[in-house]
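Ops channel
N.P.: pipeline sanity check, posting one input/output pair.
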């Protein structure tokens, strides 16, 4: 199997590490943007599109989000399956080109707590309210790096908490479906002093309940949770500590390695290719989530 990666930054390297664990025989090529680059073990670096192998099995697109549209459009014409790192685009775009098999990589769909919730959602009592929260401290994301200069902090590069943390909107869509309506508030006037959105709040309206989603870059004590207030019980889904809590009792606890969700989603995508199945979260579905995020 041969795979091309376009964009070998921090997330691209995670995909490389996950690929090595999925299948040690996979040949990985990386299209580099200049002649000056850091070699990555197990990756064949190429600097020209003329060097791209003709027998690729799929392409991973993990370059800056602001470059996604042009990259996807260009490589879609080659009719090679595309594995696209979230978010799909940094702004709303018309998909005016024919697409091959696509999957937009929202790896939290493979988090064991989300898997549990998806499996058990229909068995819970009536849901009255859902609260989703994701907050962490952007300066801690990458050690020894000026956080104000990274992609996440810069709107022009496609950064911002609403896009970086689109996982939360994605798994709401995955779990509950498309909301009947949505409302948003985006801000960037926190103590971080960046030009990208550092706080986002969404209200998603469903027929029988509402979902509130809060995202931010400035919380020092990391929190990533889903709270479901049901008729007689409250469930807390803790995505940091990998716990399912019913009222005050931990009913499920998972022990997974850091790359687990990346490995599982690559296994899923490769299995879809091998069995000629349409993957979930294709361009059209991911674009619906993006509309909620940006509209």
């Amino acid at each position: 199997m041969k795979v091309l990666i376009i964009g070998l930054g921090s997330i691209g390297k995670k995909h490389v590490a996950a690929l090595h664990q999925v299948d040690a025989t996979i040949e990985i090529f990386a299209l580099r943007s200049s002649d000056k680059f850091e070699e990555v073990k197990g990756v064949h670096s190429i600097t020209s599109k003329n060097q791209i192998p003709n027998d690729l099995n799929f392409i991973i697109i993990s370059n800056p989000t602001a470059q996604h549209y042009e990259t996807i459009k260009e490589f879609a014409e080659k009719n090679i399956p595309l594995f696209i790192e979230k978010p799909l685009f940094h702004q709303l775009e018309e998909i005016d080109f024919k697409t091959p098999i696509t999957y937009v990589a929202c790896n939290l769909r493979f988090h064991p707590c989300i898997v549990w919730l998806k499996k058990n959602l229909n068995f819970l009592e009536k849901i009255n309210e859902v609260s989703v929260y994701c907050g962490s401290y952007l300066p801690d994301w990458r050690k020894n790096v000026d956080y104000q200069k990274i992609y996440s902090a810069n709107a022009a590069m496609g950064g911002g908490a609403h896009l970086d943390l689109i996982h939360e909107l994605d798994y709401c869509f995955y779990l509950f479906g498309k909301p009947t309506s949505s409302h948003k508030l985006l801000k960037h006037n926190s103590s971080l002093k960046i030009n990208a959105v550092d706080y986002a709040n969404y209200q998603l309206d469903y027929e029988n309940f509402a979902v509130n989603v809060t995202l931010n870059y400035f919380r020092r004590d990391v929190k990533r949770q889903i709270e479901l207030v049901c008729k007689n019980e409250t469930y807390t889904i803790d995505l940091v500590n990998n716990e399912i809590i019913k009222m005050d009792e931990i009913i499920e606890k998972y022990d997974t390695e850091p790359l687990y969700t990346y490995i599982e989603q690559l296994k899923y995508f490769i299995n879809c290719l091998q069995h000629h199945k349409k993957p979930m979260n294709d361009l059209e579905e991911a674009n619906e989530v993006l509309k909620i995020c940006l509209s």
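N.P.: looks fine end to end. The mean pLDDT is 96.
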